[in-house]
Structures are given as structure tokens and as C-alpha cells.
């Protein structure tokens, strides 16, 4: 496109529950805009966005896919995201790259688990939101009821921007029309309600509107429309059928004319400040002439191109052959090749403007959440971190073939680099390597990728539950480490206090030693010893969290005072003081949603109750009954097979971390009895 400018750029993320038709909608938008010759099919594995062999095999998206198309002089960059809760990390990551979230809803199944989560996450991120009701061509729909449910769930801000017409074969737009035929509701009433909602954002326009009684011009409505979107005062509802094409061109028009450009959306939440120090809010300006600021929201390890960093440009112009810095790094890299992405295809370009999404390859320093910039004036700038769902589902893995252990760790490192919701743990007490994800589907996909792409076969088994330890009281202790072995000895004494913090607060280390009782050069060793003890666990071998450790006194020796002595004293003092502070073991509690036939509900709720869980709600979801509840993760080992048995194979479930809670006394006794404290041979 000739003479592209930031005001002619849009960025959107297609988000929503699995099977809502996001990938098919992306394909329809690409085809209708002329970016591709014709629509591919998810079933046939021929879409632009689901290009990975595993996505074709699984029949749904596993990662976010990027693409773009031009319409009416506007370039629209999009991210097509996975919908199943197991792959929510990819969808959340894409929110950092766009100004607008298109929450796609399946007209047949209505509001589903990921619908609510993505509406919430996009709102918290300050994104403009639009709701797209897809699959309006399907039979037995109750669209008025669905619109009512949307308003009940998400507020009266959900306003009709168009309506299905002519038996859902097309749509009628209601912002610029107050007459026309629609399959339900009144075009005139929808038009009037929408105008009333928009003019509330502009006092002068509202006064003129009330005085004249005539509709403001489209030009006059643009600014208050954008303001209402930014404030969440307006969440437009649109109808489409990605399959038949109904409403697709109208959606393209909305994106080009009404979706915010980089200067109209809420500014991305940048912060400036050195790690661990104070930070101040900082706004990037979508000005092509300013210094470059770009944010890496996705990393891909490609077998041919190596590490690919996918980024959104927020300020300045990224150009081919330019020198850029990664974060606080002092050594720049050269942008040897600059790409736009179209699914799996890389399109080489010369520059990318604010609002555009692109990629660079073979830059090893790039990591997820990195900020790219071209001036040291932009050192210590970072984007507010996204809150990713915490991976709770786990598998202990080991290689089938001896000697593949190092390969395993290398490959797991690459997978973790690509997916913020995939974690790898190594438990020294059990020699277990544990992979954690958001659910069975998530882990199954990772195992399939390791086998297919990396030819690595693994054995799996249930892992230890990720319990945690904490304390419920305060305590003080003094520990002296003294060792003589013929030559120079070791001496270090540490006095410290431990006290509990609020759940989820983490760990604080405080040094209030005065008078050089512990020389400053040894305090890092003390802190290292404290942290090591907390990481290893004290009463049951699980990390200790939500505590403050304050070192208030100690002693050294002019000859025998050494780092190793203070490290050991700090570690042993921490182990001792934790035991005196009424320690407890915490277990992860997860939110569970189960979809099952109504006939199985009694058995399922009884099963949850028998596993220390409780039901928080039930409802209908696309012909199935949805059960919401909370249950300890420890009770869900082999839940897939239990669910299959109770529902005749027709049930499914998803998990999301909720909180940590104290285990029952009998469970704590069992865990502490099993734990054999291990210590270093010093």
C-alpha cells in the first residue's frame, strides 16, 4: 500500500472460546479483502492461520497466528488466537499487540468460558472491545435471547451495531440507518439507542442533539464513538456468518472506519525505571519520526529460521538494516531482515510503522516481553506485564532413550520460550522433570510437538502436586556456623526473624544489621542461603512463600569469616526459624468447569464433593450442562478417566488456578512424614 500512515493502521485480536469460528472468520476476512484468492477450510487444513501440521491434525488452533489485509485504504493487522482454555496463554499474549479485541461468539453455544475470560482480560488491559456473533447461518438459533444474555452478563454497554436481515443472509448496519428490515428488533430503535449512547461522550454534541432532535453527522460521531470504545462505555455487537459471508464486508467496513488507530486506542501501559527500583508511567507516541519502541509479544522457534521475535511497533519506524537494542542490553543487533507475517508465510518488508506487527529472526538476545529500541534514552523501559493463567496440570517426563536427557532439557527450554503458560520444573528431591500447562490438551500438544518436530519420545507419569509451605506465626533465631579443618576455618553467625506476609505477597528480604556486625560484602551470601532454604522447603520439601526474613544481627571473624560460612549460616538459620513459626503446607485449589450431559450431573457433583470439592454454579451451554466448581488439584489425578466413565465419554473439563489453601491436618502429617530432609555435605 502506497504512503501508509499510522492513522490508516488497525490492529485486532480475534479471541473467544474454541469452535467459535475465529480461524474461519479470519479466512473470510482475508478472502473478502482480496488478500487471498479464496477461503480455505479448517476441516481440510487449508487455512492461512492453522498452518502447523499439529493444528491440522488436532483440528483447532494451538498458537496465535498473525496476518494482515488492506481494506478501503486501511491496513488491518490481526492475531487469530486459540480458543480452548488450555491454550489461553497464547490468546493473552496477543492482547499486548493490539488496540481492539474482537470477542467472537458461537451463535449456537452462546457465552462460554473463554468468552467471559477474554472479555475480562481485554477490559483489564484497556483494549477497545467488540463482540462478533458468528455462525448466524445455523439452525435453531435464538439471537434475541443471546443479545439479552450479553447485556445481562457484560452490561448495557453492549449495543447493536448491525442486525441480521433477510433470514440471516445479510445484515443491516444501524449507525447510519434508522430504517430497514431486520430479522428481529427494530432498526430504528437500535439506531436511536446507539446514537444516544455515543453522544453522551460529548457534552456539546449531546446538547445540540437534544436541541435539534436530528442525528449528528458521521464525522461528528467519530470522536465520541472512539471515546466510548476506549472507556468501555460502548461494546458494539455485530453479526456474521464466516461460512456464508453474511456480515463479513460490513465487519471490514467497521474495522476500517470505526476501530481505533494507534493514536485513538488507549495508550499501552509502558513503565520506565530500573529493575527493583521506582517506576513511572510512560506513554509511547505513535509518531513515525520518534525513537523506536517495539514490544516482543511472541517468540517462535522455527526449524529453518531459528528464533523469531514477533513484535508490535508502538513508536518510531523500524527499518531494514537498522541497529536496535534489546531491553537494557548494551550491544545492538542489525535488522538484517524485517518481516510481516501471513500465517506461516514471511513477507520481507523495508519498514514497519507505529501500530504494525512484524518480526525479526536469528536474534538470540530477544525474549518474550522484550522491548526493542534504537536509543539508550529508552533503556529501562518495559511494558506492564500481562497476567497469564497459572499452569496447574502437570506430567513428570523422562526420555525413553538413555543419553537423551540433555536434548530433553534443550527442547523443553525452547518450548517454554515460545509459551508463557508452559513451565518446566526440576525437583532435586525426587529427580523428577515436570512439565506444567493449562490442561490435558495443552500438555498433549507439547508431547506431540516433541515427537513430531524433534523426534523425541518420552515416558510420562503423574507428578508431585505443586504444594507450597508458609508460616502462620513469627519467630527469631541465631545460628552460628563454625568449621575448622586444619587450615583456615569458616565462621559466620546470623540472627534473623521471620514473619508471615499476606497470601500471594511472595518473599521479602530485609537487612537492618548495624555497626558492621555482618560486613556488607557477606550479606549477599546470607540472602542466597536464606533463599536456598526457602526454595528447597523445610517441613515437606516444597518452596516456602509469603514470608519476610529480617536479618538484624550477627558476628564475623577477621580470618575465618567467609562467604560460604554466611551462606550456610543463613540457610541453616532459615530452616530452624521456619520450624519455630508454626509452618503449614498449602495446596493449589483450581476452578473447574465441566461440560456433560444433564443425566450425569448428579454423579459428577457427588464425585466432586467426595474429592473435597464444591459446586459453585450450573448452567446450560450449547445443549450440555456446565458445572462450575472448585476442587484441590491433588484430587484430580486421573480425572479424565473418571469423567469418561461417569459421562459415557461425552464429558469435557477445563481448569484454571484459583488460590492456595491450607491442607487438612492429616494430609500435612502425611506429607511431612514422607519428606526426608536432605542437606549438602559441607
UniProtKB/TrEMBL annotation:
InterPro entries the record matches:
EF-G-like_DII (IPR053905), EFG_II (IPR041095), EFG_III/V (IPR035647), EFG_IV (IPR047872), EFG_V (IPR035649), EFG_V-like (IPR000640), P-loop_NTPase (IPR027417), Ribosomal_Su5_D2-typ_SF (IPR020568)
Q: Which UniProt keywords apply?
A: Elongation factor, GTP-binding, Nucleotide-binding, Protein biosynthesis
Annotated GO biological process: ribosome disassembly
Q: Give every Tr-type G domain span.
A: 7-263
| Pfam families assigned to the protein according to its UniProt record, in alphabetical order | EF-G_D2, EFG_C, EFG_III, EFG_IV, GTP_EFTU
- Is-annotated flag, keyword GTP-binding? yes
Keyword GTP-binding annotated: yes
Q: State the protein's purpose.
A: Catalyzes the GTP-dependent ribosomal translocation step during translation elongation. During this step, the ribosome changes from the pre-translocational (PRE) to the post-translocational (POST) state as the newly formed A-site-bound peptidyl-tRNA and P-site-bound deacylated tRNA move to the P and E sites, respectively. Catalyzes the coordinated movement of the two tRNA molecules, the mRNA and conformational changes in the ribosome.
**What PANTHER family does UniProt report for this protein, alphabetically?**
ELONGATION FACTOR G-LIKE PROTEIN (PTHR43261:SF6), TRANSLATION ELONGATION FACTOR G-RELATED (PTHR43261)
Recorded protein name is: Elongation factor G
Organism, as annotated: Azospira restricta
Amino acid at each position: 500500500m502506497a504512503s501508509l500512515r499510522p492513522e490508516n493502521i488497525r490492529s485486532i485480536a480475534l479471541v473467544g472460546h474454541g469452535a467459535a469460528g475465529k480461524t474461519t472468520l479470519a479466512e473470510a476476512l482475508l478472502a473478502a479483502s482480496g488478500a487471498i484468492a479464496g477461503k480455505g477450510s479448517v476441516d481440510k487444513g487449508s487455512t492461512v492461520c492453522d498452518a502447523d501440521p499439529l493444528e491440522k491434525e488436532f483440528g483447532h488452533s494451538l498458537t496465535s497466528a498473525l496476518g494482515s489485509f488492506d481494506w478501503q485504504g486501511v491496513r488491518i493487522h490481526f492475531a487469530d488466537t486459540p480458543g480452548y482454555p488450555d491454550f489461553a496463554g497464547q490468546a493473552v499474549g496477543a492482547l499486548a499487540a493490539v488496540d481492539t479485541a474482537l470477542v467472537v461468539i458461537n451463535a449456537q453455544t452462546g457465552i462460554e468460558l473463554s468468552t467471559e475470560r477474554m472479555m475480562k482480560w481485554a477490559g483489564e488491559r484497556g483494549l477497545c472491545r467488540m463482540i462478533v456473533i458468528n455462525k448466524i447461518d445455523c439452525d435453531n438459533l435464538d439471537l434475541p435471547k443471546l443479545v439479552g444474555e450479553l447485556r445481562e452478563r457484560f452490561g448495557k454497554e453492549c449495543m447493536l451495531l448491525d442486525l441480521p436481515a433477510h433470514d440471516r443472509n445479510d445484515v443491516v448496519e444501524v449507525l447510519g440507518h434508522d430504517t430497514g428490515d431486520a430479522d428481529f428488533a427494530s432498526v430504528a430503535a437500535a439506531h436511536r439507542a446507539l446514537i444516544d449512547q455515543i453522544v453522551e461522550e460529548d457534552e456539546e454534541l449531546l446538547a445540540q442533539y437534544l436541541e435539534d432532535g436530528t442525528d449528528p453527522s458521521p464525522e461528528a460521531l467519530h470522536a465520541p464513538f472512539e471515546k466510548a470504545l476506549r472507556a468501555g462505555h460502548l461494546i458494539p455487537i455485530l453479526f456474521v456468518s464466516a461460512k456464508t459471508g453474511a456480515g463479513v464486508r460490513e465487519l471490514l467496513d467497521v474495522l476500517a472506519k470505526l476501530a481505533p488507530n494507534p493514536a485513538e486506542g488507549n495508550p499501552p501501559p509502558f513503565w520506565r525505571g530500573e529493575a527493583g527500583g521506582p517506576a513511572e508511567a510512560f506513554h509511547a507516541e505513535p509518531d513515525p519520526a520518534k525513537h523506536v519502541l517495539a514490544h516482543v509479544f511472541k517468540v517462535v522457534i522455527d526449524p529453518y529460521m531459528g528464533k523469531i521475535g514477533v513484535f508490535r511497533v508502538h513508536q518510531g519506524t523500524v527499518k531494514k538494516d537498522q541497529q536496535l537494542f534489546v531491553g537494557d542490553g548494551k550491544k545492538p543487533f542489525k535488522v538484517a531482515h524485517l518481516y510481516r507475517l501471513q500465517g506461516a508465510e514471511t513477507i520481507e518488508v523495508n519498514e514497519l510503522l507505529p501500530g504494525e506487527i512484524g518480526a525479526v529472526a536469528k536474534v538470540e538476545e530477544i525474549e518474550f516481553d522484550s522491548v526493542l529500541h534504537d536509543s539508550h534514552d529508552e533503556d529501562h523501559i518495559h511494558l506492564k506485564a500481562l497476567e497469564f493463567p497459572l499452569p496447574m496440570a502437570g506430567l513428570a517426563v523422562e526420555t525413553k532413550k538413555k543419553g537423551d536427557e540433555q536434548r530433553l532439557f534443550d527442547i523443553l527450554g525452547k518450548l517454554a520460550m515460545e509459551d508463557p503458560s508452559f513451565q518446566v520444573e526440576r525437583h532435586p528431591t525426587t529427580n523428577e522433570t515436570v512439565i506444567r500447562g493449562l490442561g490435558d490438551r495443552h500438555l498433549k500438544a507439547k508431547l506431540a510437538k516433541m515427537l513430531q518436530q524433534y523426534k523425541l519420545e518420552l515416558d510420562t507419569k503423574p507428578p508431585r502436586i505443586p504444594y507450597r509451605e508458609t508460616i502462620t506465626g513469627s519467630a527469631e533465631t541465631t545460628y552460628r556456623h563454625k568449621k575448622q579443618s586444619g587450615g583456615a576455618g569458616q565462621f559466620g553467625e546470623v540472627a534473623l526473624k521471620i514473619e508471615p506476609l499476606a497470601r500471594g505477597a511472595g518473599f521479602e528480604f530485609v537487612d537492618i544489621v548495624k555497626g558492621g556486625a555482618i560486613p556488607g560484602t557477606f550479606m549477599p551470601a546470607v540472602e542466597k542461603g536464606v533463599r536456598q532454604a526457602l526454595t528447597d522447603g523445610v517441613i515437606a520439601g516444597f518452596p516456602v512463600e509469603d514470608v519476610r526474613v529480617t536479618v538484624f544481627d550477627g558476628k564475623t571473624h577477621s580470618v575465618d569469616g567467609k562467604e560460604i560460612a554466611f551462606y550456610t549460616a543463613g540457610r541453616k538459620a532459615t530452616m530452624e526459624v521456619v520450624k519455630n513459626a508454626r509452618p503449614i503446607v498449602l495446596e493449589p485449589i483450581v476452578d473447574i468447569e465441566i461440560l456433560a450431559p444433564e443425566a450425569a450431573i448428579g454423579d459428577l457433583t457427588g464425585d466432586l464433593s467426595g474429592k473435597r470439592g464444591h459446586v459453585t454454579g450450573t448452567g446450560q451451554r450449547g445443549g450440555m450442562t456446565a458445572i462450575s466448581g472448585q476442587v484441590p488439584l491433588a484430587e484430580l489425578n486421573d480425572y479424565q478417566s473418571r469423567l469418561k466413565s461417569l459421562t459415557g465419554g461425552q464429558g469435557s473439563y477445563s481448569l484454571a488456578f484459583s488460590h492456595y489453601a491450607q491442607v487438612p491436618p492429616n494430609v500435612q502429617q502425611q506429607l511431612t512424614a514422607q519428606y526426608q530432609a536432605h542437606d549438602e555435605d559441607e
